Amino acid sequence: MTQPILSFRNVTFGYQPGKPILRDVTFDLRPGRITAILGPNGAGKTTLLSLTLGWLAAWTGEIHLAGTPLKSLAPQERGRRMALVPQSEHTPFDYTVLEYILLARAPHLPPLAMPTAADTQIALHALEQVGISALAERPMPQLSGGEHQLMLLARALTQLHPSRPNGVLRKGTGGEGFLLLLDEPTSHLDLHNKARLIEILRALRKTGVTLLMTNHEPEVVLALADEVLLMESGIAPQFGALDEVFTAEALSRIYRLPIRLVQIDGHKQVLWT
Predict the structure, then answer these.
(1) What confidence score (pLDDT) does residue 85 get?
(2) pLDDT confidence of residue 120
């Protein structure tokens, strides 16, 4: 069996002593799969992403990245193998899109080194991948909400790309060693850009990149996820294949709302009353 790219083993964490938000979290993420984290506000979804990135330290349990204990990896090494697309991000300077994206090359550069011409080509390729190459020289404050979200995705792809411009993150070239984390990636997108993002993430999955995303939108989860991690504050989450875990009973329980799954034109839809 393929080695998991990310493993949580009995991970417990909280912000106040004696009040865990995450309890006994255990799951394995296999390369080239998309996992959706679902749960109500306060269930610890974003906290789980922060633990994965090494920004927080678990109270108990272990986290491994591709078989290596996460705590033994230097921040620069973690930055070469994992990247985050946040819900939003405030930048105090009026960078152009390209200037900002190039900051993501830091894990691949020596201290205080400037990005090279090869780094610029990597960043331009990432902008092309997400369909906003025409915005490379636009100041960031002039971006729409949807453009900004796509720029954050391009920045994450720029961060994950190896030093050689024609390396991975293209179909058939093998991105199995990379983990892309997304925190509510569709929350600021209109319908057109949401559909575009879904297609981009599907294409990334084909390269072997593993994706772990939080999401509150059932239609996005149904369109993308291979596995689901259902979270409830303070109790062990449920992890498994989409068809096994994403059920009306489970959704009704965690959201405390009567929910039904119905077939419409051959596709599952979520309804609630």
Answers:
(1) 95
(2) 95
What are all long-range contacts of 102-108, with beta carbons under 8 Å and residues at least 24 apart? 102/158, 103/155, 104/155, 104/156, 104/158, 104/159, 105/158, 105/159, 106/79, 107/76, 107/77, 107/79, 107/80, 107/159, 108/80, 108/162, 108/163
Report the CATH number of the 6-272 domain. Answer: 3.40.50.300
Any long-range contacts for 189-192 (C-beta under 8 Å, 24+ apart)? 189/145, 189/146, 189/149, 190/146
pLDDT category at 218 given cuts 50, 70, 90 is confident
Return the residue matching tokens 């946040």: 86
The sign of the dihedral angle between the CA atoms of 46, 224, 154, 28 is positive
Strand bridging mode 60-65 / 68-69:
antiparallel
Please report, to the nearest 10 degrees, the dihedral formed by the alpha carbons of residues 167, 168, 171, 172 taken in order. Answer: 90
- 219: closest CA among 241, 249, 197, 236? 197
User: Which tens digit of pLDDT belongs to each residue from 17-59?
Assistant: 988 999 999 999 999 999 999 988 888 999 999 999 999 999 9
Q: Which residues are within 8 A (CB) of 32 and not within 5 positions of it... i.e. 6 or more apart? A: 175, 176, 205, 206, 207, 208, 209, 210
Question: What does the CA dihedral 93, 81, 240, 170 come to, rounded to 10 degrees?
Answer: 90
